[in-house]
Amino acid sequence: MFGLSIHHHRDDFEQRCAPYAGMVYRHCLHMLKNVQEAEDAAQESMLRAFRAYPSFRGKGVASWLYAIAHNTCLDVLKSARYRRVQLTLDDPENPFEQADDAPTPEAAYVQKAEKEQLWELVMQLSQEQQTILSLYYGEQMTYEQIAQATGTRVGTVKSRLNRAKEALARKLEEKG
What CATH number matches the domain at 1-91, 1.10.1660.10, 1.10.1740.10, 3.40.190.10, 1.10.287.1700? Predict the structure, then answer.
């Protein structure tokens, strides 16, 4: 009987959470800026989520996983081990680097700098706003998919996304 419940727990977790593993990894990569560290943090995040899953009582699996990934990355950033890692955005495995139609080195530097600045501003938003922007732009989910992933209604998703965009626009204006 006990074995059956563990098996069901794993199957249910995989069905509900596995589709967001990519989102978890990409968020870790944004925060840690290192492929190996991001892979480790994403794996740790999913493990933490699996352990906590029996007590999860909500519909918003994506928001919950995003929060776990965020907190896992904050733990990594605080750790002494992470500070010793040589960070680089020139990692050949970095999926955010685009080899096809590569711009000039100067243009690539500007693009990278702009992307970093934008991400720093996004990280200043509320966790809810970070999640909704990540699902919409990063995961390219529809309003309906986001509503399902966050356990909210489509109208709520639209208004939260608009508020997140407005907050980000204000941050961009402040930065000049």
Answer: 1.10.1740.10
Q: Is the whole model's pTM more than 0.85, yes or no?
A: no
Q: Are 175 and 120 in contact (CB under 8 A)?
A: no
Tokens standing for 84?
A: 């010793």
Show the tokens assigned to 68. 């776990």
pLDDT tens digits, residue range 108-138?
Answer: 767 766 777 777 888 888 888 888 888 888 7
The length of the chain, given as a count of residues: 176
Q: Which long-range contacts link 32-38 to residues 24+ away (Cβ below 8 Å)?
A: 32/73, 32/76, 32/77, 32/82, 33/87, 33/88, 33/89, 34/85, 34/87, 34/88, 34/91, 35/91, 35/93, 35/94, 37/76, 37/82, 37/85
